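FAQ: What does the model actually see?

It sees only this:
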Amino acid sequence: MTKDIQPIFIMPESTQRSTGRNAQRNNIMAAKLVSETVRTTLGPKGMDKMIVDSLGDVIITNDGVTILEEMQIEHPAAKMIVEVAKTQEDEVGDGTTTAVVLAGELLKRAEDLLEQNIHPTVIAKGYRLAADKAQEILKSIAEPVSISDTSLLKKIAMTAMTGKGAESAKEMLADITVDAVKRITEVDGDIYIDTEDIKIEKKVGGSVECTELVKGIVLDKEKAHSAMPRQVTAAKIILLDSALEIKSTEIDAKIQITDPNQLQNFLDMEEKTLRDMVAKIISSGANVVFCQKGIDDLAQHYLAKQGIYASRRVKKSDMEKLAKATGASIVSNLKDLNQNDLGKAGLVEEMKVGNEEMTFVRECRNPKSVTVLVRGGTEHVVDEVKRAMDDAIGDVASALRTGKIVAGAASTEVELARRLRKFSDSLSGREQLAVEAFATAVEVIPRTLAENAGLDPIDVLTELKSSHDKEKKWAGINVFTGKVMDAWQNGVIEPLKIKTQAISSASEVAIMILRIDDVIAGGPDQGGGVPPGGMPPGMGGPGMDM
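And it is asked to produce this:
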């Protein structure tokens, strides 16, 4: 008589586990689903997504990273694809959809190879070879660009905005973008650009055409006192990060007053301290004060009497931008204030924008920080224009940093796939199949652009390949006519960094997901419910009933 074999648990009962082909299939499926979600937003004819959160707030966008962040994805493999979009956003500021679609397609092609019993490490090795070769190819086909190539930079900005909510005014917005980036660029041997120095301030009202570049800073602040002047020309500006108030004692102190005169003396002393503070500002020759902390009511009164414009509780980040724009030093102690600490601006004025008062610091001489005031008819329009401006600024800055650009409209991807296929012919063994799969995956970009434009992807891809075989390396899709065009001649230009970053991020994450053959998801402490990883159905391993 045989004894029943008791199953042995090495993990808590609530743990879910999937292994081998099952784990790979689930992970690839999750990554493909994320990729499919944003795929329809790619290109000039891409569609938008509406995301409604639990509070009922609505976001309408076709910006890949915004969609993925707002979707609150739970699946661990899918989260890795979202990381690809975030990396692309941080490194370049654009091309997030391209990177995610490419990662999904690399995994889809790898799945076909897994079905042919090719080992995941062989596919991973082939993908690495292909990714390294792709970087080489991209660098060899790229064209140079410099800060003096204004028309090329403008085309880069316009390409970034095509298909976004800002497309109606893309020429004007491209001019603003290039002007803003040029102003904050520091050329000292190397090119240094910090896109944080371009402040994008959103205000609902007017139309997208009312968007303007302010050669200085726009603050979401009003003047501190109604008697202060609304405008100050030839402004001499103090930036204070200490309060224009009587300091309260650092320790608990008790002040005993036994005589009414003592109280009066005490109040007079406070008043004198505030007068001295204001006198110090007046003696420096300043006529505008921006204070990071509070300004006492009495100090406001004295400043107003002297015709000095003051704003209080200005954000630290805005103070730093003001310092870059006006050339002022941020002063921590009024006693140390001197004329060298003052910044200059042609005009400081309070203006009503929409239904709020804002302070404009304009006409700064050679400002190293500027503001783009984005306008639009509704909040959703303003948000989408801001996202388009972020993409355009990121693209122009990225092109200048690397000094290399390529044509868009899928011309780069078709050329890359063609050259990768040639490279695969020089390989032997199963890695060759993986490199070929990589080349086919890269073609997902022209296929998707064609599909989103309502064109036949097979016809378009065949035409493109035949053009590239005739050495037309910038032959791309004109999604509006459905014909093949010279993307360079038609001004569809992108920074090289978009392509190199998308290839490296997508291939790295695809390789990482491919190498996972065991998924162990810890269950909740109190049994029952879905594990924190949010595993989809079918991710659990074989049943082990007691």
